[in-house]
Amino acid sequence: MEKMSTEEILEHLDEMFPDAHCELNHRNAFEMAVAVILSAQTTDASVNRVTPALFEKYPDAASLAEADLSDIEQTIASLGLYRNKARSIKGFARAVSEEYDGIVPSTMKELTTLPGVGRKCANVIMSECWGLPALAVDTHVSRIARRLRLAKEDDGVDDIERKLKRRVPRERWTKTHHQMIFFGRYRCHARNPECTDCPFTGFCREKTGRKKV
């Protein structure tokens, strides 16, 4: 098995996905936060199909907080778990409107008190809305971290986040987050990964065995 340092992994990711970025369409922090909540267990493309109509009806936290729940459900009905998500974004909007004067907060502590916002969502909001160093761990990042031996196979998302933040320079946490998502989304799929010409083939746990490191 070939050995590969974190620096080498990051260099390869830079070569493969130099322009990796957030693919959720948004114009401001409120829209970004709502889109992130809606993106749970669904694709960014699916979210982007429903948010234009949603934000046309409810352009800010105050209007979404006062919206009829059934109308929110109808507007996002093409998404999986849309009823739960409708309650989450309405509750999120109410909390932001009432507790933060309509401004999405910027700290992990504040964000994770809001309906629908867990640690992963909070990290995305912090980095995308406020430009703060953050490294969100979603299903793609979890899979890539395990396959590239940046984490153990049985590590939970909090363990993976902690290990990645320790190994990846702070100034490129957000960039690495996006690159790992692009790699997982477009090359290293959960099933049938595209391994041809992959720079990690001789190193990847998926290809060389599943022993813990």
Kindly describe this structure.
This protein has helices at 6-16, 29-38, 44-57, 61-65, 69-75, 82-99, 108-111, 119-130, 139-147, 157-167, 173-186, 205-208. The chain is an all-alpha fold and 213 residues long. α1 packs across α11 (173-186), α2 (29-38) packs antiparallel against α8 and α9 (139-147) packs across α11 (173-186). The longest helix is centred in the middle third of the chain and has 18 residues, at 82-99. It is elongated. The model has no long low-confidence stretch (mean pLDDT 94).
In summary, what is this structure?
The chain is an all-alpha fold and 213 residues long. 56% of the residues lie in helices and 0% in strands.
Order of helices and strands: HHHHHHHHHHHH
Number of strands: 0
> Over the alpha carbons, how many angstroms does the gyration radius reach?
18 Å
Helix content: 55-70%
Low-confidence stretches: none
Q: Please give the count of helices.
A: 12
Average pLDDT score: 94
Please outline the major beta sheet.
none
Described by the principal axes of the CA atoms, the overall outline is: elongated
Structural class assignment: mainly alpha
Q: What portion of the residues fall into strands of 2 or more residues?
A: under 5%
N-to-C terminal Cα separation, in Å? 12 Å
